[in-house]
């Protein structure tokens, strides 16, 4: 029933909402097409796909693949990783390009970063055609994905035919192994360490006039706040807007204009706090998101891809209410406040180590939540973390013992290589969880 309602909603929006139609195709690319139809067609079109492959290989063209191109977080991090990779591997003479399906995020990314690629195409039809080639010949692809998505399967030549004829093998290769995803995060975080003062995602011109007029005279001194009101992935419990009030008033006392961003509806609690509501602005888009966030002085974010804007732009930030200890944000100016998990059976919070083990053993989604009660950041924890983030004098501020221990809580996890840190106030308050 939900699926039918979603499709009807899509059709109505496409027909009557101009902005929606601009960013979304009528016929979206389904997983069935990518996972079942593409391999089938590719096999029977072998003479054509092989000819195209040889041409691409001869011209040293490589495609960036497996990005969830409609996801803010994945696009931000994976493009950032690619730019850092090309800086590290300057001797690389390949011509890199992107072909993505149409979405608000992919269109915005193309419009801002296309000059950094040999080609950057956003077109569903071309994406379908190109996939027929790439799925057969992964040696002309490069994968910077930080998800389990694996529609371009990395198979060696001996296994190609089993890919088409063995259904079990096909299903098995649709998603990367968890260890491979974690290893990709580690590679990305190491790339950040190797290019510590390089922020390639911020290399673009500043404000569009529409956005400039929307923000107004405080254009050079504003802070961004964001909440998460849907339980999914890193978020086990929706953000309580009450926990932001003290911080909002503090930011305003410091002279910041406060802007509510993201795509969540602004809580009614914020209506009388003199907050600019960007999230429901009719021109809000991924391209304007990048411009807005790049020029902000501080970002307070809930656990979602939105929180990674601060990391890639090198902006002081607080990233709150995430349960996945072990895969925290990488940014050197990011202060962390994780969601704690209380064991219902004992009414005690589990330790940071135990929570990290849950992530490592169960993955990104915690299915056995019935055993735990999530506890999000309190008002004072958000407030103190904000003060700490705004107090950074430089990127190399030393971590204290608890912050170092938190990052190294699980040697198998990417957090060992992250430059972000646990809130000092939060660490002291919950010292018993180490």
Plain-language structure description:
By secondary structure, the chain is an alpha/beta fold. The protein folds into two domains: about 20-200, no CATH class; about 220-434, Rossmann fold (3-Layer(aba) Sandwich), CATH 3.40.50. It is about 40% helix and about 15% strand. It is built from 18 helices and 14 strands. The protein has helices at about 1-15, 20-25, 30-45, 45-60, 70-90, 105-115, 125-135, 160-165, 165-170, 180-195, 210-215, 245-255, 285-295, 310-315, 350-360, 380-390, 400-405, 425-430; strands spanning about 60-65, 95-100, 120, 140-145, 220-225, 255-260, 275, 300, 315-320, 335-340, 340-345, 350, 370-375, 420. A seven-stranded parallel beta sheet has the order 7-6-5-8-9-10-14. A four-stranded parallel beta sheet has the order 3-2-1-4, sandwiched between helices. Strand 8, helix 14 and strand 9 form a beta-alpha-beta unit. Residues about 155-170 have low confidence and may be disordered.
